[in-house]
Amino acid sequence: MALIDVYNLKGEKIFQRDIRDEIFNVSIREDILHQVARGQLASFRSGSASTKNRSKVRASGKKLWRQKGTGRARVGAASSPLRRGGGVTFGPMPRDYSFKINKKIRKAALRMALADKFKTGQLIVVDNFHLEEINTGKFFEIIKNFDSNNVLIVTEREDENLEKSSRNIRTVKLLRAEGINVYDILSHEYLLFVEGALGIVEEALT
Asked: What pTM was computed for the model?
């Protein structure tokens, strides 16, 4: 097993702990990371664009004028796509953009994303991360101790003070261990784990 330093909130190293090689020392495949991240982004799309076709337009079904004898072109209902205010032909309809990614692939990609942060020295572990009160300034001072402005913080449990202190900082995101995912790991420069949350993630991925 590899070793990683564990820090306190002042940025001081206090001890080292083992981390599992089957998670943090795997080979990294960009194609798998790309596939899973693309799948996540696709599932975020709302797919709510919608138009009315001729059957959904509210209009009379009566023939506008008789078929012959007027000198004008023959015409059907007012809801025809050829008429102003009529239905739209082949317009967008609500749809689901998500596509299935196998569970094994998702887990493998998560291991690779964690391994990438560890190998590049962008994985930070702290023994505890708790604030006595909601204080964005104090939270920002703690983040500065690790020289990591763009950071994803993974905690083991819900912490209202921590969540409210961090939510106004655009480059910081807070997640519980159960919600860790490939896209958020890759879209932040640093990954900061509370030690208890690291144990939860290791347990889930082993």
From this structure: 0.82
